[in-house]
From TrEMBL:
This is Glucose-6-phosphate isomerase. One of its GO terms (biological process) is gluconeogenesis. Pathway: Carbohydrate degradation; glycolysis; D-glyceraldehyde 3-phosphate and glycerone phosphate from D-glucose: step 2/4; Carbohydrate biosynthesis; gluconeogenesis. It is found in: Cytoplasm. Catalyzes the reversible isomerization of glucose-6-phosphate to fructose-6-phosphate. Gene3D superfamilies: 1.10.1390.10, Glucose-6-phosphate isomerase like protein, domain 1. It comes from Limimaricola cinnabarinus. The gene is pgi. InterPro entries: G6P_Isomerase, G6P_Isomerase_C, Phosphoglucose_isomerase_CS, SIS_dom_sf, SIS_PGI_1, SIS_PGI_2. GO terms for cellular component: cytosol. Keywords: Cytoplasm, Gluconeogenesis, Glycolysis, Isomerase. One of its GO terms (molecular function) is glucose-6-phosphate isomerase activity. Its main location: cytoplasm.
Length: 533
């Protein structure tokens, strides 16, 4: 199958994407419309037979069967023996979802209710700090316990009507110091977000926050809440059970923002808006389970990605939101996609015969245009681009600026596809240069074009739409993992560095010698210790 796709790739290598638009129905046929959103992949070199061959991958890998295994609570995270049920966190209709014959929904809905109750009290001032109503919420967490709520808090800024919300993740003391400098300990709520409650960065920052608060507040524990699967450890930290919001190990860290890990977001935007976010995710779940593959947005998003990465060999993918509030989306997707599908062996431990998931990176437009788009348009590598754009912004009276933003987004995908040939480039410089110099100058102005991109267009970045977009990307990762035979739900690749950091700590502290370390590491320790550590 992969060989068939590779030979298709060879046969279309010289074809210009724009020639595919000789078919007047191309745009409609090579798009998916669902849930009020439009995913347009017409500006790729995928034709109908290629699409059929890609869809065949789904059937070969029994993606439909695996999808139902996931939704029904089977332990599809096979290396850890766990179910994968973040979808239960947004299953607002509460229909039974069973893990080991136990319906998990009563627990999920009970925790959601407790979160809403707490969020309302914080927002209304019924829950206070020593100095009165809470003015600032500091979420301390890292990876999945940070990126989701931090990304969404930025995305949904127009919906914030609660206390200010801050996110601390890095063990670099600069991170927490900068945040705490703007907060009053007497009116700050600290939320320690950690699935395991052992992550060294988070626990170190939590202790720092506790010490900071302790200088002004007599009962610091009363201004702390915890989001974790480890109730025993949250108790040891001194956080009362009524402010501990638990979840189960079938929620992966990078899939966890729909449940307790979303508490800081819920406090910022309110429980009703948070429910709208959940409803968006739930709607995407229904779509993903029911839509035939060709009309299935997550499936087609995944297949287009695999065509570019595994078949054509484009190693990276740029995520380019023309929506400034999605500034953290690329970072969020880096964890979601690269921690999930950045694996070198398949589920059964065999080396993958193809590339794993791509490198994902990006920045909002139009900023990126003035930074790295040069390489995207004229560099030697092809970087498939994923544009996101809203039909409407939130800024009344500035609609003309939003239209300018849209024009820029559409212009980029058009420029990537069409490019500019040497004749056009010559015309651009004719009159300014002559002879050989004209030729030389013209060559610098050639855009090869034929560079693929997709665009996800949606009405407006409101909570429900954000929920749809995030669930769309989650399911894309699932489909890609299922086709590649990867376990998308473990992350052993983060372990080695953690273990070595623990072993290096006493060496950096000067308590142990660096003898026995490699020469480079020993030299760096020596330099850093000699210069201030
Ligand atoms: O929520 P925890 O347990 O603190 O983990 C934080 C992050 O660390 C990781 O386990 C690995 O870095 C991520 O998967 C996770 O989101």
């Amino acid at each position: 199958m992969w060989d068939d796709l590779k030979s298709r790739a060879d046969s279309v290598a010289e074809r210009r994407i724009e020639t595919l638009f000789e078919d007047a129905g191309r745009a409609r046929d090579f798009s998916v419309s669902a849930l009020g959103m439009l995913f347009d992949y017409a500006k790729t070199n995928i034709d109908a037979p290629t699409r059929d061959a890609l869809i065949a991958l789904l059937d070969k890998a029994d993606v439909a069967g695996r999808r139902e295994a996931m939704f029904s609570g089977a332990p599809i995270n096979e290396t850890e023996g766990r179910a994968v049920l973040h979808t239960a966190l947004r299953n607002l209709d509460g229909g039974a979802v069973t893990v080991e014959r136990q319906d998990v929904m009563p627990g999920v809905l009970d925790t959601l209710g407790r979160m809403e109750d707490f969020a309302r009290k914080v927002r209304s001032g019924a829950f206070t700090g020593q100095g009165g109503a809470i003015t600032d919420v500091v979420n301390i967490g890292i990876g999945g316990s940070d990126l989701g709520p931090a990304m969404a808090a930025t995305a949904l800024a127009p919906y914030h009507d609660g206390p200010r919300c801050h996110f601390v993740s890095n063990v670099d003391p600069a991170d927490i110091a900068d945040v705490l400098a703007s907060c009053d300990p007497e009116t700050t709520l600290v939320i320690v977000a950690s699935k395991t409650f052992t992550t060294i960065e988070t626990m170190t920052n939590a202790r720092t926050a506790k010490a900071w608060m302790g200088q002004a507040v007599s009962d610091t524990g009363a201004q702390f809440a915890a989001l974790s699967t480890a109730a025993d450890k949250t108790a040891d930290f001194g956080i009362a059970p009524e402010r501990v919001f638990g979840f189960e190990d079938w929620v992966g860290g990078r899939y966890s923002m729909w449940g307790p890990i979303g508490l800081s977001l819920m406090i910022a935007i309110g429980p009703e808006a948070f429910r709208a976010f959940l409803r968006g995710g739930e709607a995407m779940d229904r779509h993903f389970r029911a839509a035939p593959w060709q009309q299935n947005m997550p499936a087609m998003l995944a297949l287009v990605g695999m065509w570019h990465n595994q078949v054509l060999g484009h190693a990276t993918r740029a995520v380019l939101p023309y929506d400034n509030r999605l500034a953290r989306l690329p970072a969020y997707l880096q964890q979601l996609e690269m921690e999930s599908n950045g694996k070198r062996v398949s589920m059964d431990g065999e080396e993958l015969p193809y590339e794993s998931g791509p490198v994902v990176w990006g920045e909002p437009g139009t900023n990126g245009q003035h930074a790295f788009y040069q390489l995207i348009h004229q560099g030697t590598r092809v970087v498939p681009c994923e544009f996101l754009v809203a039909a409407e912004g939130h800024e009344e009276g500035l609609e003309h600026q939003h239209r300018l933003l849209i024009a820029n987004c559409l212009a980029q995908s058009e420029a990537l596809m069409k490019g500019r040939d040497l004749d056009e480039a010559r015309e651009k410089v004719a009159g300014k240069f002559e002879g050989d110099e004209l030729e030389r100058q013209a060559r610098h102005r050639v855009f090869p074009g034929n560079r693929p991109s997709t665009t996800l267009a949606y009405p407006k970045l409101d909570p429900e739409t954000l929920g749809k977009i995030i669930a769309l990307y989650e399911h894309r990762v699932f489909v890609e993992g299922a086709v590649l035979g990867i376990n998308s739900y473990d992350q052993w690749g983060v372990e080695l560095g953690k273990e070595l950091a623990t072993a290096l700590q006493p060496i950096v502290d000067g308590e142990e010698s660096a003898d026995g370390k490699d020469g480079s590491t020993a030299q760096l320790v020596g330099f850093l210790r000699a210069n201030g550590t």
